[in-house]
């Protein structure tokens, strides 16, 4: 087991927002890569019809997760919520109570690790 915190966020792309989604994604990926060394994975995926986006995020620990959440809130949250409608948020790993509380408004489904490995 590790201290990693990770999630998959499933989002619908709002009508007419594809170009803004691409711009926002590029900015968010760049900012996360440059400013957040505790971000281990940050992957965006799109369905073939371009209507649904999944974001897979993995952080070294709860402290790194909270750094990301602070950056997201101060830089991107308003635009993000105009582009996307959240559909499902599944949380994995070892989030501490501060992370769970901060993610509370997103209504994550919390999954407890019961086996496996990380390399």
Global outline: globular
The DSSP helix count reads 4
CATH topology: Alpha-Beta Plaits
- The domain count comes to 1
Structural class: alpha+beta
Mean pLDDT: 97
Using the 3D structure, state the CATH architecture.
Answer: 2-Layer Sandwich
Strand and helix order: EHEEHHEHE
Largest sheet: 5 strands, mixed
Q: How big is the Rg?
A: 14 Å
Strand fraction: 25-35%
The oligomerization state is single chain
Widest sheet: strand ordering: 2-3-1-4-5
CATH first level: which class? Answer: Alpha Beta
What distance separates the N and C termini?
10 Å
Describe what is shown at a glance.
By secondary structure, the protein is an alpha+beta fold. It has helices spanning 18-35, 62-75, 77-83, 97-103; strands at 5-13, 39-46, 52-59, 84-93, 109-110. It has a 5-stranded mixed beta sheet with strand order 2-3-1-4-5.
Characterise the protein shown here.
The chain is built from four helices and five strands, in the order E-H-E-E-H-H-E-H-E. The chain has 119 residues and is α+β, with helices and mostly antiparallel strands. A five-stranded mixed beta sheet has the order 2-3-1-4-5. The protein is globular. The N and C termini lie close together (10 Å).
